[in-house]
Every structure is written in C-alpha cells, then in structure tokens.
Design a protein that fits this description.
A four-stranded mixed beta sheet has the order 1-2-3-4, sandwiched between helices. The chain has five helices and four strands, in the order βαααααβββ. The chain is α/β, with parallel strands linked by helices.
C-alpha cells in the first residue's frame, strides 16, 4: 500500500521549470537576476550566495505579490486530488521556492521541502531560509 507520494514541483507539476525565474519575471527583476546567475555560472559566488542575492531583489515586496496563484500542468490537480482522496500523504520537493501559500498547491500538499521566503509582520519579504521543511495545516 502506498502511504506517501513525493513529487517535484518545478517543471513537473508546473509549466515553468524554475520558481526563481518565474518570480523574477512576475516582479520585473529578471534583468538583475541575470547578473546574479552570471556570477554563479562563472564561479564568482556559490549556490547559497546566488540564492541570497536573488532573494535580496525581493526585499520589501508584499507577500500578495509573491504568493500568486499558478497554473499547474494538465492533470496535476487531478493527480493531487486522487492521492489525497485515497489517503496518500503528499510531499512536494522544490529546489526553487516554497508553495505553502500558493493555490492550488497549498490545498493538497501535506509537507514541503524547499527554499523558503520569510516575511515580516507587515507581510513583506524579509529573508530567505535555504531548504526549509514546512508542514502544512493538512499534516495535523
């Protein structure tokens, strides 16, 4: 009996391959992000520093601008619903960003393993937590 399904998010459940690139495009920071990517690709900075410099571009951005609904691939919602309806816990894994507040993913996933944006009390982007494990309210 299958009890848990582990699913990659970026490029598997979503049409876009990178949550980072998608968010940069939505927020209009993609040109600055190209500079960060070039620094990483040329070995000037490591992955952690690349992630942090990218996240710095989003400091002060309202949570509502970041946690926007996304379109999942055809059949993804049906798959998530099938797993949930059959009592199978769903773990979402992403080398990108978390999807805890983003419909429709947040409605089905029990547990996320991803990089996490951290927000201030006023719900603006403040910091990045690398490879966080996030439990959703579904895990009670």
């Amino acid at each position: 009996m299958i009890r848990v399904a582990i699913l990659d998010v970026d490029g598997v459940l979503t049409y876009f391959r990178s949550a980072w690139q998608h968010l940069h495009k939505v927020l209009g920071t993609d040109n600055w992000a190209l500079i960060n990517r070039a620094a990483y690709s040329s070995g000037l900075i490591n992955y952690r520093d690349w992630a942090l410099t990218d996240a710095l571009l989003w400091i002060g951005v309202p949570r509502t601008w970041i946690e926007i609904p996304i379109t999942l691939r055809k059949g993804a919602v049906e798959l998530l619903r099938f797993l949930r309806d059959n009592g199978i816990r769903i773990i979402a894994v992403s080398g990108g960003l978390n999807y805890t507040g983003i419909p429709p993913i947040k409605n089905y996933v029990d547990y996320f393993i991803s990089n996490e944006l951290i927000f201030n009390e006023d719900n603006t982007c403040f910091l990045l937590g690398l490879m966080s494990r996030i439990r959703t309210s579904l895990m009670n």
